[in-house]
């Protein structure tokens, strides 16, 4: 994941995931080890990508979150949606 996952990076991420799904991949582990910030657009792209993965029998799991990024997922209650390891 990029250091700042916001509007600029979201479109690129969406296309990458879409291409992987079209290529037959449906499960992903997103490493947030270098990500310091995520905005609502970044969250939205991850959620929509998750939905597409689930439709094809896959999932998205998250790892390596720092406290600031984890707090955003907690505040938006996305910790109930994603498996965070």
Automatic annotation (TrEMBL):
Gene3D superfamilies listed in its UniProt record: STAS domain
Family, as annotated: Belongs to the anti-sigma-factor antagonist family.
InterPro entries hit by this protein: Anti-sigma_ant (IPR003658), STAS_dom (IPR002645), STAS_dom_sf (IPR036513)
One Pfam match: STAS
NCBIfam families with a match to the protein in the record: ant_ant_sig
Residue stretches making up the STAS domain: 1-85
UniProt-listed PROSITE patterns: STAS
Highest taxon listed in the record's lineage: Bacteria
Name of the protein in question: Anti-sigma factor antagonist
């Amino acid at each position: 994941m990029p250091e700042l996952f916001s509007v600029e990076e979201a479109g690129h991420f969406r296309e990458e995931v879409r291409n992987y799904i079209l290529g037959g991949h449906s499960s992903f582990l997103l490493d947030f080890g270098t990500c310091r910030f995520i905005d609502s657009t970044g969250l939205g792209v991850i959620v929509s990508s998750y939905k597409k993965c689930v439709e094809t029998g896959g999932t998205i799991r998250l790892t390596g979150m720092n406290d600031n990024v984890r707090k955003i997922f907690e505040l938006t209650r996305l910790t109930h949606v994603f498996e965070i390891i």
